[in-house]
Design a protein that fits this description.
Chorismate lyase; two-stranded antiparallel ribbon; alpha+beta; about 250 residues; Arc Repressor Mutant, subunit A; elongated; 2 domains
């Protein structure tokens, strides 16, 4: 075991035992140098090991802190977009948004930042929507917050001709009984889900304020009408330290 690994092991044991609590500052470099009898460079190398493991984060200035755990949010993707749950939606109220409703039911405060644009879709989205080469789509981008902490990114892509002139073009929370798409005659009757687990891009890490060594789940859901025509492709980025994905599957 190297000297840096020795320092990391000792600090790791203090974190796991609760001697160093979530959010608490690590001992200063000067104090650690005196305690371990090693150089500043060795102390920094030991702490870097824990940063790379995701146990320690860098705060403002030069401080290093024990990583705080986010309360996990359970996403039940079996029922989150069911038409029966959409039936209670109320236009202009967060209660109409099923994600917000689920968060509020846990006693937390949801908030979303929403923007709408017309873009060239990523290749995997264009394939999911069966979009001809060169065609543009409508993109609704959402950053979802719980108690003012960023929890998820949700990007919904729609064929432009389907949603132009509908409330989905408004950069705000929108809802309607049965769902906004259904309210304009576009009923999703089937979903296809794909889940990939990976490390975040730099942009995702910045938008979600992710500590180092935090993987994300990329959940892609494509909704289809009764004829099998794709109506929407939603790509949700879910940090692994603050989400649990739940499915309930009928064995029949």
């Amino acid at each position: 075991m190297t000297k840096a690994q020795e320092i990391a092991a000792d600090l790791r044991e203090q974190i796991e035992s609760g001697s160093l609590r979530p959010g608490e500052a690590l001992p200063s470099e000067s104090k650690s140098m005196r305690e371990y009898g090693y150089s500043r460079e060795t102390v920094r190398a030991g702490v870097r090991i824990l940063i790379d493991e995701g146990l320690v984060v860098t705060g403002q200035g030069q401080g290093k802190f024990v990583r705080e755990d986010y309360p996990p949010v359970v996403w039940n993707w079996s029922t989150l977009e069911s038409r029966s749950r959409h039936a209670t939606a109320v236009e202009g109220r967060t209660a109409g948004d099923q994600w917000s409703s689920a968060v509020e039911a846990e006693g937390k405060t949801p908030r979303q930042e929403i923007s709408v644009s017309i873009v060239q879709p990523p290749t995997h989205v264009a394939d999911a929507l069966q979009t001809p080469d060169g065609d543009l789509v409508v993109l609704r981008q959402r950053v979802r917050y719980i108690d003012n902490r960023p929890y998820a990114l949700a990007d919904s892509y729609f064929p432009q001709q389907l949603v132009t002139g509908t409330p989905l073009m408004d950069p705000r929370d929108v809802a309607a009984p049965g769902g906004v798409l259904a309210s304009v005659g576009l009923v999703q009757v089937k979903y296809r889900d794909e889940i990939a687990v990976r490390m975040p891009t730099r942009k995702e890490a910045e938008r979600l304020a992710l500590p180092a060594a935090t993987p994300v789940a990329e959940h892609t859901r494509t909704g289809y009408d009764a004829d099998g025509k794709p109506l929407r492709c939603m790509v949700t980025i879910l940090p692994g330290d603050r989400h649990k994905i739940l499915y309930e599957v009928d064995a029949n």
